[in-house]
Amino acid sequence: MEDSPVKDIMTSAVISVEPEEPLQKVASLLTEHRIHGVPVLEGGKIVGIITETDFFTKDSSSIYLPSYIDFMRKMRVVSEMSGSRREMVDRLMQAKAKDIMSSPCQTVPESLPVKDLIKKFKETGLSVFPVVGDSGAMTGIVAIADILKSFDASL
Prior knowledge:
Layout: H1 23-33, E1 37-42, E2 45-51, H2 65-75, H3 83-94, H4 97-100, E3 108-109, H5 114-124, E4 128-132, E5 138-143, H6 144-154
Parallel strand pairs: 3-4
Antiparallel strand pairs: 1-2, 4-5
Helix pairs in contact: 1-2
């Protein structure tokens, strides 16, 4: 399995967003589809990626923004807030994918052997990579979980 190319284990049906996609929608996509990241495409080209870790606040790893955004939206507590706190939450509620995406986005070629992909995951500390073909167009996405599934299937 380690000599197989990434294209053999990647997910071809990729959920992606555009830079202007509301952050609330991105959070919903991650939660609803139970995915680890979404590529951000502009004109069909990869311009960034948003992963689950991009949603954790920098000040505290215990605040997961999708849950916070969803809570604020459902409870409608923003209108009861005062001054600067309300402005901060309003900005968060209006945020777009481009505001938190990691850019430039690291990709892997679909021909990359899985053993080299494992090394790349270790070296970068990332958990997901968009996969590109020879033309540079995105053909799929691969996560650490895909490697684990492929080893499980080979046993």
